[in-house]
Structure formats: C-alpha cells, structure tokens
Amino acid sequence: MTAAQALGWLNAAAARSTWQNRLTTLRRFYGWALDTGRTGANPVAEISVVDCPHHRARPGTRPGPSRRPAPSGPWAEPLTAYLQHLTTGAMPATTLTTYRSRLYQAADAFPARDPFTLTTADLVAWLAPLTIGREHRRGLRHTLRGFYAWAVAAGRTTTNPADGLPVIKGRPGLPKPIPDDLLSQALTVADPRTRLVLRLAAEMGLRRAEIGRVHAGDVQHLPDGFGLLVHGKGQKQRMLPLAEDLARLIRAAAADGDGWAFPNGAGGHLSEQHVSKLAGRVLPAPYSLHTLRHRFATTAYSRCRDLYAVQRLLGHANPHVTERYVSLETTTLRDVVDSVSLTG
User: How far apart are CA 188 and CA 223, in angstroms?
Assistant: First the structure.
C-alpha cells in the first residue's frame, strides 16, 4: 500500500471519527510490520488529522499555522526513515509532530545539502542568528542530536555534528500558584464545563492535555473511594484519588460525549489548546491554567510535607521538577530564618 492508496481508503470514511479510527488501525498495523521486518516503509507515517476531509477549524477560532511542507531534496529520504523509526518506538503523536517540525526547519535551512555533510560549524552558523526562545533552541539541539545519533547507529554517517553544539541549560522559573481568592472568583463566573476544567487543575494537579483526555471510563472504584486513571505525558498513566463530587461531575459531563468529559463534537475530546482557552476566559492575567497546577503542588506540599508524594500526584519523573512547582509561604521561610537568628 502506498501513501496515496492509504489516504484514499481513509477518505472513503463518512465521518471524522471513522477516519481517525482507520488511521489509528493503520498506524498500529504498520508499526507492527516494521517491528517484525515484514516491511521497510510506513505509508501512513506522514498522514495526520489535518489531511482528513472532515477536518475543520472550530467556529469562532482562528486557524493555526500552516503545516510546514515535507522536504523534497536530499533530506527527504533520511527524515522519512527517521520519523518511521520514531513511530515504531511508539513515540506519542504530539511529540512526533514536534520532532518533525524541528527537522523540517533544519531541512529548510540547508535545502541543497546532504544532511550528512553538515558540520558542527554549519549548525552553529545557522542556529546562532535565529531569534527564538531558549526552550525552542534547546529543542532544536535535542532533536538534531537524536537524528544524527540514529544516523550513526544506522551506518548512514560516522559523526554526529550536533554533539558539538553548546549545551543550553534550562532556566527554571519561580512557582506561580494562583491565589485562592482569585481562583474563587474565576470559579464563580465560569460555566459548568470550565468550572470542571479549573477544579481538575486546582484540586488534582492535572495538566491541560490530561484534562482534555478525561473519560468516564477512567473513573474507577478503589477500596478507599473513587480514583481517576490519568493519561499523562509520554503515554504514562497514574491513578489519583478522586473526590466523590468530581467523579459525579465527570460522569455527568461525559453522558452525551461518547464518554469524554470534554467532547469536541466530532467523536473525540478537546485539544489541550482548547482546554487552555476555556480557562483563559475566566482566569485573571497573568495567571494561566498551569498556575492552578502550581497551586495544587504548593497546597499539597504544605499539608503533607512529602515531596515524593507530591511528585507522584503530579506525574513527574524527576523530583527536581516538582521542587519548581512548590512555593513555600514567606511566613514559613521567615520562621526558619528567625529560628537561627543570633539575636532571637
């Protein structure tokens, strides 16, 4: 099957949900076929939901940026092979899209160059003048290192020019938990759907993408009460205790949405961007939905003083990340300083 044949079969679907289900089936099938050596190509690797004829922007929203076209020069074949390699490794679709965008950006910078003739100096000369943020720059470096590491392992080249790029350290910011009085005001003016979004972030510490994926089937009975199976980053899952009233609200919200608490009207769930937009309509500047997650972390730690417990609740792999979410009250810090004062 070629990409054109796959797209033809997908486009025969009468509804977007059917189209998406067919694409998921093909991705799994060809992922298995690549794993078992039955094929060397994945014809659906470059197909995404934006190719669906039923895909449309939601009313009242602006269309997002146009998708960067795939390179057609010397980068085309190695990038296709590398993206297929990542797909075979079950990389989440959102992460794969980010990697693809970064690699296409590099291909656009050197359209006539074979990627395996580039040197560290070439990459530095391209990256240095770019007016991009620190995290974007770190992301480009990380993606390029991964691409060239794969190429070396696959015998396509003998050197990794991205290894010579300067290390870009992260710049962790201070925790920014939203004050409870401002959160209460937002809850007061929010509609029921948005109020549930705010509560899941503030009372359970869920990320925006995790909120969008909440499903009635994820509400489970545990020996000590209700629990919510959360689908987190990197396809990781965690079970969180769930208040009875939140369990009831999730089930009520999901009653008419194919099981999704936040249905998108097309058989799926709201995107993380849409979830953020809902919260942004009622939260006061400069507070975003993510500051409610900071509020959860700060409040949880103040009650239990157990950073490991908070780390597990937030779904962090590294406790140092959790530390950046916890804001110690100034009174707590003052009490510590006063306790060691020589004049106390």
Answer: 33
Spatial strand order of the sheet with 219-222 comes to: 219-222, 225-231, 237-242
For helices 192-204 and 180-189, the axis angle rounded to 10 degrees is: 160
Q: What is the DSSP letter of 236?
A: -
* H/E stretch holding 299: helix 290-304
Distance CA 316, CA 305 (A): 17
Query: Does residue 225 sit in helix, strand or coil?
Result: strand
Do 191 and 122 have their domain in common? no
At how many degrees (to 10) do helices 16-35 and 76-88 cross?
A: 90
H/E stretch holding 122: helix 120-127
Specify whether 160 is located in the same domain as 188: no
CB atoms within 10 A of CB 250: 23
Q: Residue 170 domain-assigned?
A: no
Q: Are 133 and 141 in contact (CB under 8 A)?
A: no
3-class DSSP assignment, residue 294:
helix
What domain range is 71 assigned to? 3-57+65-164
pLDDT digits (tens, 9 = 90+) for 258-315: 789 999 888 889 988 899 999 999 999 899 999 999 999 999 888 888 888 989 999 8
CB 243 within 8 A of CB 251: no
> How does pLDDT run across 185-242, given as a tens digit for each residue?
999 999 999 999 999 999 999 999 999 999 999 999 988 899 999 998 877 899 999 9
